[in-house]
Amino acid sequence: MENAIEVQGMQKVFGQNTAINHVSFNVKKGEIFGLLGPSGSGKTTTIKILTGELGPTAGKVNVLGYNTNQLKTSAFKSKIGILSDNSSLYERLTVYDNLKLFCKLYGAPLKEIDRILRDVNLENDRKKTVSKLSKGMKQRVLLAKALIHKPDLVFLDEPTSALDPASMAQVHRGLQRLNESGTTIFVTTHDMEEATVLCDRVAFLNYGDIQEADSPAALRYKYSTHAFHVETFAGDRLVIENTPKNGEQLKELIETGQVKMMHTDNPTLGQIFLKVTGKELV
Amino acid sequence: MMNVQRINAIFEKDIKDFMKNMMLLMMPLIPIVLALIYTRISDGESLPIFLIYLVVGVTFSAVTSSSMMTMMAEENEKKTLRGLMLSPASFLDIIIGKSLVTGLITFTALIISLAIMGIDPFLNIKAIIALILLFLFFLFLGIGIGLFSKSIAATSAYLMPVMFLFGFTPMVDSFGLAEDGIAMAVFETFPIMQAIELHDGNSWLPLGVIFIWVAAAAVFMYSCFKKTRTDD
């Protein structure tokens, strides 16, 4: 099977509220897929359905070859890792004891604890009681908990929301290493920079609908005006359309040494999201 | 469905957590202290059976039910239960792991208390079966209440009726109820009262009545479980 996740016409209704509205998408094996959207757009509900925590109201879901009815089985759960904004740890226990519990629940060898603690840069904090850790450190322990059994597919719901930039970069490197070893990563975030750095493909989720899906580079190209933005030493700011007839104008500016700065129009994912949905990502 | 390694992992985690939880650690001391006080007061005389069962009732309500509902409610409150449920551990693995911890603590407190008060009345098969059934009854009540309790604070409110109705039932004589009234007749069917009745005759019927209470507690626990699982 080429796809790790296949979703067709997935719908989730809570009472009168439609959280997910007939969404369809695929996630290829081995890719990092980002589901982007503002708070309340249905990102967490999507993860809950894909991990078997909630059942869809309608539609078909297939994750790692398991259909909706099989997502609650131990066999499926042992192949996935989950980090969500609701994940938590046993505060009275040490970092090591927390990881030891999940190592045993997933049937992973205890030596994996040392590896994962190195990966999240907590090897010197293994004996610390969780209640004494900072928020960022706790988030890294939660990440370690989600990855300790080397899952085939990891679901990360806002994984770096509590982290400082240095820790965030470290977690990104760890996730990229994990992805290089073959693990598929499904990540939800409203951090556009994170999505650009991390994801092979992204999808914009708004009001329970997927409104755009492609690689960040392809989306930036698609929504670019393809114009050149030129700033001259004289202080002029020119926008020159990328057409053959404007070649001479550009050539002249360069040859006469007037160009101080020049770049193409590349919208950020945040700007594209705003354009597609008319909403800010909060 | 059941996995010994996962049960063992949960047992090991809960024992460590229990030992670091001062509130839970204090609970097993209550029946032991009561046993010491009653023995002191009796001045060497053997204690009446209803008084021994009062300590048994306190053990099962204040240790078994209380520990179980506190452990479950804390997992709910801190959202760690969700982490366990999302792991390959089944609900049965989680419950059995926790029940083993509760059982270990309960029977340690019970054996110490009975050793202080006199263990002789319990050295027969009927009394031992009754104690096991009583343990299951209070355990299932604790699990059920723990499942729907959203916080540890809420369990205190739920523990009171369990303690007064089912733990302190031997005290019912001091409530001044009419001997042949309906209330008294109802209280006489309660699990601890049926266990006391076992010591008054040769009938096995009281064990049957206690078993019905255990079955009812199991149904209560299952309906609480179903209610917590139908969140969509």
UniProtKB/TrEMBL annotation, chain A:
PROSITE patterns membership: ABC_TRANSPORTER_1, ABC_TRANSPORTER_2
Protein name: ABC-2 type transport system ATP-binding protein
Domain ABC transporter: 5-232
Keywords assigned by UniProt, alphabetized: ATP-binding, Nucleotide-binding, Transport
Family matches, as InterPro entries: AAA+_ATPase, ABC_transporter-like_ATP-bd, ABC_transporter-like_CS, ABC_transporter_ATP-binding, P-loop_NTPase
SMART domains recorded: AAA
Pfam families for this protein: ABC_tran
Organism: Lentibacillus persicus
GO MF entry, a single one: ATP hydrolysis activity
Automatic annotation (TrEMBL), chain B:
Annotated organism of origin: Lentibacillus persicus
Subcellular localization, as worded in the UniProt entry: Membrane
Protein name: ABC-2 type transport system permease protein
Keywords: Membrane, Transmembrane, Transmembrane helix
GO cellular component terms given for this protein: membrane
GO terms, molecular function: ABC-type transporter activity
InterPro entries membership: ABC2_TM
Residue ranges of the TM segments: 21-41, 47-70, 91-119, 125-148, 155-172, 204-225
Domain ABC-2 type transporter transmembrane as annotated: residue spans: 44-196
Top-rank taxon, per record: Bacteria
